[in-house]
Amino acid sequence: MELDIYFSPVTAPVIESTSEQKRLGEVVQFYSEEGSFPDLEQVKVALFGVDEDRKALENKGCADGPDHVRKHLYQLYPHWNYINMVDLGNLKRGNKVEDTYFALKEVVAFLVKKGIVPVLLGGSQDLTYANYMAYENTGRVVNIASMDPVFDLGHEDDELNSRSYVSRIILHQPNFLFNFTNIGYQSYFVNQDALILMRNLYFDINRLGNVRANLEETEPMVRNADILSIDVSAIRAADAPGNYYAGPNGLAGEEACQICRYAGMSDQLGCVGFYEYNPRFDIREQTAQLVAQMIWYFLDGFSNRKQDFPGENKKDFSIFRVLVEEYDEELVFLKSKKTDRWWLELPVKNVTDNQLVRPQFIPCSYEDYKTALQKEIPDRWWQNQQKLM
Questions:
Q1: Do 229 and 325 fall into the same domain?
Q2: pTM of whole model > 0.85?
Q3: Which of 29, 237, 296, 353 has the fewest Cβ atoms surrounding its Cβ within 10 A?
Q4: Which tens digits make up the pLDDT trace of 4-41?
């Protein structure tokens, strides 16, 4: 596949080094001129912009965001071992928005198949739908996590846009979405019908107040995701004013950065997108700087991946068994000896003969283990058990 047909080159940053340590812009390969598309062999991370905002509601101008973020990202110093990373430039805008979706789907599918993690700079958040579609032919179910103050369900008769893309993902056939996790929704923006729908689907929805009260609990949320979609309006306007919907409440900048680091550390997460940054509303490019730092933290986490997902070989894990007598259930927890991260082992049985087929491992936290010790079944266990029934 010739990826270069989908991209426009970007200008490589001019960086004046002030020390022996190189900045990020000096260690990244750029698609900076026609005919010099980077070689993707051995590449681990591929960043590219998507200048598409035709389906952005009230936030037109977010297509111009990628180059503003780049200006600040490549001035930062990498504090990790070398990551083979490329900047593929900007995805060309199609004649119709559907053309952009198709191109994005093809590019992400190609990169993921090669084991390369795409880092998308939007553009509007409806691009998450095209990102999801890239996994359609992988033969497996997909988990999505979204940092967003709303659920983006829209209304039943809405066309696909930045505020209705989740409904399109849910309704798409064949459906290969296993779980959707929202991080940081704000209750006053969400109606009761939407809350009921998300709970009936056994999706994992997390209020802003709960997220901020225990930020560490977001780590298993993003560790369970294949795709992370970030709407910058989830961050309070004081830290990220560059969005039409920016408001007084939301995640703090440092909290958003920590969640991005958790995401980078996840061995399962295969794609991350930063959406809805609009330079027209930004103040002194404060939001562009924050998005650049969020990407930096994602890369920092990526450099610390330990490949500790449990499988048949459990020698790198401590195993804890908790019997919840009231429910006649034995819960099996695994704790990584490499990272101290926790998993719940969920047995999957054949519906015809009730025989164990295989275990499924659910990312969880020490808090879930403590809940089990109190003879209560953790919510994560219940939600996943219901989906598998």
A1: no
A2: yes
A3: 353
A4: 999 999 988 877 766 778 899 999 999 999 989 999 99
